[in-house]
Amino acid sequence: MIILDENLPIHASRMLDAFDQRYECRSILDYAPRGTGDIEIFELLGGFDEKPVFVSQDMKILKRPAERAALKGVDISVVFLASAWSSYSWPDKAWRLVKIWPSVTNEVTRVLKPTLFELHAGKALKINRLRLTAEL
User: Fold this and answer.
1) Strands across the sheet with 2-4, in order?
2) Helix 38-46 × helix 65-74 angle, to 10°
3) Most buried pick, 23, 79, 100, 101, via CB within 10 A?
4) Computed from CA positions of residues 32, 106, 16, 84, in that sequence, does the dihedral angle turn out positive or negative?
5) Are 98 and 67 in contact (CB under 8 A)?
6) Is residue 50 classed exposed, middle or buried when 0-12, 13-18 and 19+ CB atoms within 10 A define those classes?
């Protein structure tokens, strides 16, 4: 399962769930109220029997010690959308997500251990592995 953070439109999770026939895609708002902190979200996701992949636009999570520690403790994979994504309108963001989504799902399911990724949105849409979540 892939869960999108509330910093992405709820429509994104619905669109990707309809598009992707292999993986269920949901919004974190399906599981927690708007405004739930990142630490609480990580604890929630860590309690899932099958660890989901989390998708967020908030790369600052990696700079905040308490959030880094919480993320490391639950051992989930996360795809961070690079800062350029925030400059796109919803229609531009939507087609880019659909275009790159097969590469995202292929990459996140290929790893054997929870991993952090960055999704770039410039002229070349691409996903890069950053490091293992355990290395935070």
Assistant:
1) 25-27, 2-4, 53-56, 77-81, 115-120, 126-132
2) 10
3) 79
4) positive
5) no
6) exposed
Residues sharing a CB contact under 8 Å with residue 121, sequence separation 6 or more, in sequence order: 81, 82, 84, 85, 88, 96, 100
Residue 75 pLDDT:
85
**Tally of domains within the chain:** 1
Tokens of 59: 């790369």
In this prediction, residue 112 carries a pLDDT of 95
Mean pLDDT of the 120-124 span: 88
From residue 133, how far is each of 7, 11, 32, 74, 78 by CA, in Å?
21, 28, 23, 9, 8
pLDDT in tens, 15-62: 999 999 999 999 999 999 999 999 999 999 999 999 999 999 999 999
> How many CA atoms, within 13 angstroms, populate the side-chain half-sphere of residue 134?
3
**CA 73, 54, 36 angle in degrees (round to 5)?**
75
State the pairing for strand pair 115-120/2-4.
Answer: unpaired
